[in-house]
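Human: You know discrete backbone vocabularies at least as well as I do. Show me how you would write down a chain together with its backbone fold. No explanation is needed for now; the record alone will do.

Assistant:
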Amino acid sequence: MALRPGRVQQIHKREERGIDRSNEPFVIEKLTRRPGLISILRTAFEPGYTHHLREIYPQWGIGVSTCIDEGKQIKHPRLRFDHYVDLVKVWEDQNFIYVEDMYVDVLLYEKSYYHVIDLEEFGAAIFDRHMSSAEAKRVMENVQRFVDSYKRSRLSYVVWKQKYGVHRKTL
């Protein structure tokens, strides 16, 4: 499958390394794979926190990013959100897990509200034919499904994670 430049993160399955969307290598401090969940802990790539946790739920088509400072979750230092949700497409080959950003994002403010962003980028990608109508339909269905389940979880990612993502057996 051809990689869309600037949209795909590559995670090496057997080595503690990956390649960012910007084509820059990075070190993975901890990679965890469970049915329905891929979790990556890496050094922060912005000042104000020490680590970046990314939990990827392939069946939901989402990747949830959380800022960690000295082992504790914190709000993003600049934008003040609790969690950043990327709508993604995930696939694998023998060496890598590929996580493609599908343009639409959701900012989660724990126990308060959410904000859907980057719909203009999503519209431009469709208009410029960088994604098929089938992909666009899947992304919008995933956005709706996630937002509905998030609302049912009392606007809490922690509750959402307990209901939909955490209680899985380890591979």
Observations:
- The CA atoms of residues 18 and 34 lie 19 Å apart.
- The longest strand covers residues 96-109.
